[in-house]
Design a protein that fits this description.
- This protein has 389 residues and is mainly alpha-helical.
- It has a domain of 38 residues.
- The protein is built from 19 helices and three strands.
- A three-stranded antiparallel beta sheet has the order 2-1-3, with no helix packed on it.
- The relative contact order is 0.04.
Length: 389
């Protein structure tokens, strides 16, 4: 009898294990079936344009678990792409409140909620969300970028500067570039209040953050010029050429005015010739032709500009050539056709875009440090090619 029980014991254990395994499978299958039913019901609400009811149903019935959290994010992002920010906010706020989310998922939810608030123009709430993420290894740089955009929108430059330690620690060049422009904005305020020392300190700090900031050197040149330190101003203008050759044509006239009052007046035109040789800039060409007109024959000037127009034909160069022809014939009656051509070219140059954003392509007849379209800093440069430099 005992021998029989001993033989049946393994069979009983095996049967118990088999039945238990089937029970677990059944429970898992029931859970999956329940989840499928819940999703199907929610999707039916969505497809029947009962979106508010669908959101409420899904949030109430679906537990936030590893296999559903991505579905919640996908649903919220779908609403945001469609411009339905109130619905996206509802989902992301629900996710942020869930205590069982892992740190990475919680940070993701906070970041997306911040984006919702930012898109809705609720900058104070967006700021609160992004400040929670400034030390996150995953979302830190993105959060800092959004915070700087917020402070740029509300013109609170000091709040952006308060993030300097975090920005330097991030080693992100783009963030440093933006922060350098915040220092330039504060420098402009200091200039208006006539605080000379503070102006220079702010601008030097901007150059430490972004050595390629042509804006910082331009403002510094203007500060030196206003205090009659013309040699220092000329040095700043030279630095601009090394920093940003595309922008440099805009400062040639200002640079000449400083050189005329400095101890190095004779260095201006040789430098401008060097600029033209390296860049082919029409502004540098026209400025150098002024020197040739004074120091050489008009024939030499005409030969020089014809060679230049063959190298890089531009409307501005052509206009200057017409002007030279009219001046040459000033003792006689100027050809009427040249007068008409000159007026037409001048009218065209007056209305065409003078600047183009290198980031988004926005065109403008006036210069902005921050692009009105994409809000990027120092990206509006003089137009190049036939219609520009």
């Amino acid at each position: 009898m005992f021998e029989l029980l001993f033989l049946l014991l393994p069979v009983a254990v095996g049967y118990g294990w088999f039945m238990g395994r089937n029970s677990v499978k059944q429970k898992n299958q029931l859970a999956k079936d329940s989840l499928t039913i819940k999703y199907s019901t929610g999707l039916n609400y969505l497809l029947s344009n009962q979106q508010d009811k669908a959101i409420d149903y899904l949030l109430e019935t679906l537990e936030v678990e590893d296999d559903t959290v991505e579905a919640h994010f996908a649903m919220a992002n779908l609403f945001r792409r469609r411009g339905e920010l109130d619905r996206a906010l509802k989902v992301h706020e629900y996710l942020v409140r869930q205590p069982m989310l892992q740190d990475k998922e919680k940070q993701h939810a906070v970041f997306e909620l911040g984006r919702d608030f930012y898109s809705a123009g609720l900058y104070d709430r967006a700021e609160t969300m992004f400040l929670r993420l400034t030390k996150s290894p995953v979302y830190g740089i993105k959060a800092l970028s959004y915070l700087l955009q917020i402070y740029q929108s509300i013109k609170d430059w000091q709040k952006g500067i308060d993030l300097e330690k975090l920005i330097i620690k991030s080693k992100d060049k783009k963030l440093k570039h933006v922060l350098a422009n915040f220092y330039c904005e504060l420098a402009n305020i200091a200039i208006a209040e006539d605080e000379y020392i503070k102006e220079l300190e702010l601008l030097q700090h901007a150059l430490q953050l972004d050595p390629k900031s042509s804006r910082a050197n331009l403002v510094m040149a203007q500060v030196f010029e206003s205090s009659k330190h013309y040699n220092d101003a000329c040095r700043c203008y030279k630095e601009i050429f090394l920093q940003d050759r595309e922008f440099f044509p805009d400062v040639i006239d200002k640079m000449q005015a400083c050189y005329d009052l400095s101890d190095h007046k004779d260095e201006f035109y040789p430098f401008i010739k060097e600029v033209y040789d390296k860049t082919g800039s029409t502004s540098a060409l026209i400025k150098y032709l002024e020197y040739l007109d004074k120091a050489d024959t008009k024939q030499r000037s005409e030969e020089y500009i014809l060679a230049a127009l063959k190298r890089r034909p531009t409307i501005r160069g052509f206009k200057h050539f017409i002007k030279m022809q009219l001046n040459e014939d000033s003792e006689q009656t100027s050809p009427q056709s040249l007068d008409v051509i000159k007026e037409l070219v001048a009218a065209y140059l007056k209305v065409r875009p003078r600047y183009s954003c290198r980031n988004c392509g926005f065109n403008s007849t006036v210069h902005y440090w921050s692009c009105p379209s994409c809000h990027d800093w120092e990206q509006l440069k003089p137009v190049r090619g036939l219609e520009g430099e």
